[in-house]
Amino acid sequence: MIIGRSVEYVGSYAFSGCSSLQMFMFSKSTWGIYDHAFTGCNKLTFLIIPDSVTAIHDYAFSECTNLTHVAYAGLTDPKRGDGIFNGCNKLIKICVPKEYSPNSFCGMNNVTRSSVCVDNEYSVLSSSLSHLVTPSVILMAFFALLFAFLS
What we know:
34% of the residues are buried. The protein has one helix and nine strands.
């Protein structure tokens, strides 16, 4: 899912328990993700978070049991609450820009610095996500780029 340009934050419990959400891309105007916004989205496998996100609140992505990859375009850790990725036991990679300064992202230590993870224009994700590229993901990426171009 790709949220629109006018969405500045994702409210508490907005997508909590959504069983069909597989991928989520935030718009570049999104600055906040509130408590339990995505708790229990058990089919969510990866997230793309732009540098505009400056706050991620308590348990925002907790119990997303199939979340494996997060790509974050910011250079510093956003303000964060407790247990953001609590119960995300399959989270194996958090990809951040090479210039990212902390050694962890929202309390998680499995950070990989790379110039090809994601940038502020939602460029191609690193090859570590290639196993997630299916026709539906390609179609979603196409629409994301189209949306960014038309915005």
